[in-house]
Amino acid sequence: MVFSTPIFLFYFLTLTLLVYYLVPRRLRNPVLLCASLLFYFWGERVYTVIMLLSTAIDYTHGMLVERCKARGNDRGARMAVASSMVFNLGLLFFFKYWDFLAGSLQAVGLGFMPVLNIHLPIGISFYTFQTMSYTIDVYRGDARAQRSIVNFGTFVTLFPQLIAGPILKYKDLGDQIDQRDCTAEKFASGVQIFMVGMGKKVLLANNVGLLWERYKALPPDQLTVAGAWLGVIAFTFQIYFDFSGYSDMATGLGRMLGFEFAPNFRYPYISRSITEFWRRWHISLSSWFREYLYIPLGGNRCSKPRWMLNLFLVWAATGIWHGASWNYLLWGLYFFALLMLEKLFLLSRLEKAPRVLQHLYTMFLVVVSWAIFAIEDFSQLRAYLAVMFGLGGAPLADGAFGYYLRSYLPVLCAAALASTPLGVSLFQKLGSRTRQILCTLLVLAGLILCTAYLVDGTYNPFLYFRF
């Protein structure tokens, strides 16, 4: 079930909130667990069993880790953590990477792995990372093992962030699972944040996404240099507003239910280096890899060659986490190379340059990265990049470019403005009473506009659902 659909907004969410606030506090987690399972079952049916199995395995492993630690059996605790990781990574590999690896091997004449045409369960990349980090946190002493299977199941299946994040760590949410405050102020702020996310998704991401789809569908001989750049710039805005919009909706829904989630985006397109960009983009994933892969590998407290290897492994994993295709691995290694250049010598020089130049440098490289990310077919990717950089004799522009630029200029300008904190800064300068009235009007207007778009339109993808 997708957040930006009338059935979610006016049926599922309304009924869930009604029941959630009518039952006693001690029954809210069972209600939330049942609602989350229904939410997932709506889209995945039989694969709900996989998520329940993952929940049961990690719940028992967390208990086992804590019991071994209490008895001074550190080896047993480490084996339990390893067992949990093998199960979770094995589950992720089978459903997400088996067919990719089998197809790649068959392409070079090795057919010992059959292609099974496995359907990828929605959200498996997110909830396996969450459950895997739980046992690690229990082993490290950062969290207590959850005694209640209902409470642990609520953590794993929590529908606001179940299928596209943000990735939550149990140590950050465990106390809220057991006890949380549900206030009118928090609920109201949750509604506001949710509607901001809905506007990002429906009014911005969906509209600029149509422009990208038009250019992506063109054969290379019909592309122009300006058109190729316009298309990938449209995707640059689409993926940001699609994913950050979902994250805002998840955060807003969490607040409506009494939870506080850490922000997943902090205006990444105002960054002045690639290093800064990755401090602002998909923060929950970056922090997960930092805490559970980069630091255990040794981080930067080692020799320079080992440190470079650690970064290489992290960015290879970051790339392939996004999808079972070689372009995602290339995308991750592209950022590895850029970050290496910055950390070794470029960043100190870049900081001396004018801010405008820093920003142009960053956004140029980010936009190129989204071309690599968006096009899975390597031959199409090579052709598209060649046109972007004026290779192969592609014309500079044509009449179609002018038409699309004029047609989409308002939404592109709105997207560019919404990518910065300028609007929020101006809003905060208003008086509190004015802000309150304006918030109410904007929420109502946003709900009406988004509903009208959802009822009338057919293009409503969520890009990160396939990851």
Automatic annotation (TrEMBL):
Family: Belongs to the membrane-bound acyltransferase family.
One Pfam short name: MBOAT
Alphabetical UniProt keywords: Acyltransferase, Cell membrane, Membrane, Transferase, Transmembrane, Transmembrane helix
GO cellular component: plasma membrane
Gene Ontology biological process terms from the UniProt entry: alginic acid biosynthetic process
GO molecular function: acyltransferase activity
Alphabetized InterPro entries for the sequence: Ac/AlaTfrase_AlgI/DltB, AlgI, MB_O-acyltransferase, MBOAT_fam
UniProt-annotated location(s): Cell membrane
Transmembrane segments: 7-23, 46-65, 77-95, 107-129, 149-168, 223-241, 307-324, 330-347, 359-375, 381-401, 434-455
Domain of life: Bacteria
Record's keyword annotation contains Coiled coil: no
Keyword tRNA processing recorded: no
Protein name: MBOAT family protein
Membrane topology value: Multi-pass membrane protein
Signal peptide: none
